[in-house]
Amino acid sequence: MVTFSLYTIDNKINSINKAISNFIQTEKYNRIVDLAKEQHNGGARCININIGNHPVERLRDMVQRLQTALPLPLSIDSTDLDQQQIALQQYDAAKANGEKPFVNSISEGRLEFIHLSDIQPCKFIVLCGEREDNEGVQSNTTAEEIVDTAKRMTDMLMQNCEELSLEDLYLDPGLHSLSNDIEGALPRTLKAFELMHRDNDLNKAHKIVTLSKLTSDLPLKTASGDAVKAPLQCAFLTLAVPRGLDTIIADSRKAYRQLPNSHEAMKTLWDMMILQGVDAFERLQRFYQT
Hints:
Helix content is 39%, strand content 17%. By secondary structure, the chain is α/β, with parallel strands linked by helices. It has one domain: TIM Barrel. Helix 2 (29-41) crosses helix 3 (56-69) and helix 8 packs antiparallel against helix 9. It is globular, with a radius of gyration of 19 Å.
C-alpha cells in the first residue's frame, strides 16, 4: 500500500465541533492540548485553530497553551482581523522550532490581511477560488480564472511582504462537495492544479485543499457497509498529488493511500470528471448506495 507523503495541517480544533466549542467556552485548554498531542502523534505537521465567535482572548490563551505543550507551528483559521492579530502577537516561532505561523486565509476580499506580516513573518493560505471585481466578491468558474487570481495574489503578496518567499504561499483553488458538484467543480480544481504546476512561478508555491470539503454531506457507509468518505478522499488525492497538490488540511490520524484505477472510488471520480448535472450526482449515488 502506497501512502501519500503530504504536509498535513490537522483541523480537529474547530469550534464548529460542539465538544471543542465547550472546551473553549469553559477554558478547558488541557483537553484541547491533549487533542493536539494526539494529532501530533498521528503525524500532523501543523495544528489548525478555529475558535469561531468565542472571545479573542481565548485564542490568545490557546496559542500560549499549545505552544507550551507542542513544538509544532499553528495555523490561525479565521476571517476576523483582530483574531489574526492577537494570535500572531502571541505566537513564538522559537517554540515551533523556528517555523512561521500560518494565516488561514487571505483572499482578494481580505487584502488587509497582507499587513499581518508586519507583526511577524508568516505563511499565507491563499484562497484562489474567488476574486473581487467591480461587482464585489465573485466565485471563479473556470480553472483559468482560479490561476489568474493565484497570480494576482502571489504578485501582491510578494511585493508587499518583505520577508515572504514563494514557498511561504499555499494556494487553495477551492474544493467543493461531490454531493453538490453539478457544474464540474472537480475537473476545474484538478485542471487548476495542472496549470499552476506548469507555471514557472506558481509551481514554486505550495498547493493545498481542505480535504473534508470533498465529502461533506455524504453518508459514512455504503449500503453494503463499506466506508464512503475515505476512499473518495484517497481517490481525489490519487488524481491531485501528481498535479502538484502537496499539503492538506485534514485528519492527520488517517492513512491516505494511492488507489488503483480499478478501485470503485477511482471509477466514480473518473466518471464524475466527464458527467455533469444530474448524471454526475446519480453516478455518485451509485457508489454509496451499492
